[in-house]
Amino acid sequence: MLHPTFATPDLTTFCRLDELGLVAVGQLIEPNLATIECRLTEPDPWCRKCGAEGVARDSVTRRLAHEPFGHRPTTLLVRVRRYRCDHCRRTWRQDMTRAAAARAKISRGGLAWALKGIVVDHLTVTRVAGGLGVSWSAANDAVLGEGRRRLIDDPARFDGVTTLGVDEHVWRHTRFGDKYVTVIIDLTPARNKTGPARLLDMVEGRSKAVFKQWLAERPAEWSKRIEVVAMDGFTGFKTATAEELPDAVPVMDPFHVVRLAGDALDVCRRRVQQDLFGRRGMKGDPLYQARRTLHTGDKLLTDRQRSRLAALFAVEEHVEVEATWGIYQRMIAAYREPDRNKGKHMMQAVIDSVTTGVPAALVEIRRLGRTLKQRAADVLAFFDRPGTSNGPTEAINGRLEHLRGSALGFRNLTNYVARSLLEAGGFRPQLHPRS
User: Fold this and answer.
1) Mind listing the pLDDT tens digit for each residue in 285-314?
2) H-type helices in 337-374, by residue range?
3) What CATH topology corresponds to 156-253+389-431?
4) Cα(229)–Cα(166) distance, rounded to whole angstroms?
5) Domain boundary assignment for the chain
6) pTM metric for this prediction
7) Contacts of 119 (CB under 8 A, 6+ apart)
8) Are 393 and 228 in contact (CB under 8 A)?
């Protein structure tokens, strides 16, 4: 076992000031703040106008928030030397662009810490601002600006995309209704099993026009590489895909197909409940008690749950619920079938059974059948292209819901889009290579 070699303690190296072109010359430790006095390591005596060597005139100080150590914010007090050229009378300061951008309040080291905290550790802006010892608005503007520069505006993040997922997302609840955005997901890593899906972009609104415009803005070469687009049952997304990506295959993913059947089962259960009792389900009603059991896959049912369903379906008035439940279970079985060809035949049989010869009393199944008949090709396309489920899209939607909860909501859509991309845009390996 190799033993580490310890070097002499060095405040400059420990605080990573050498990476910023600074050297520590003093420190002041207070109960709630640590201040490190610094100087620039490189002199800058040459006049930028005439090239003559200037004379040191005096120095000015500049305060920069730096990455914290422990729970104590750290501030850099940088002494910047000023020069004057005796030849052209020009004055200038030492160049400190390595340490911070012009007029910035946060050092580049502090920005890197803040960006990593947002992307890797999922910290809130409030927590980052507290760690840096700056205001919320200063931290938010700086982090989002750095995130756009280093990550979001990088055109290479669109490279290698062959499978898209598209869905709607509620980004804000208001008294006047929900505000929606369309989220576009890169499902390529999930399909190829090389990593998790990632958020590509987020566009205001939810319509065919919104998705169509986003696709139209992409380069032609990029669009030609898209092979599959996974989506829900909204026909606007399908139409936009057909018009802008004619060579791509639309896939109605299992998540939304099964949800259609599950919704039909719920509507049927409530309708039968209302017909029998003239009211909605209550605690002691068998249909209400079985509402969750009805959504459990057949192979996952316990003996107790099977007994409950057997007793439920023994009642003649529940025959419509039983028929709808049977369609729901057949669809789940088709998707869980390991043999893709067999699963496709099973799903085709389900579609055929709900599109023809369905009794008029089974209104929910007839409605489901009309939808499946219209989107049959998209439903069956999944079995020829496994791994194109929109499940990862729903998972990212869940992460965005958590982001909104952590931030206590958003009012500015531009900030929300940027924060969402930093949260779920797949940037973690770039900031934390070992993750």
Assistant:
1) 999 999 999 999 998 999 999 999 999 999
2) 340-355, 363-374
3) Nucleotidyltransferase; domain 5 (3.30.420)
4) 7
5) 11-109, 156-253+389-431, 254-384
6) 0.84
7) 147, 151, 422, 423, 427, 428, 431
8) no
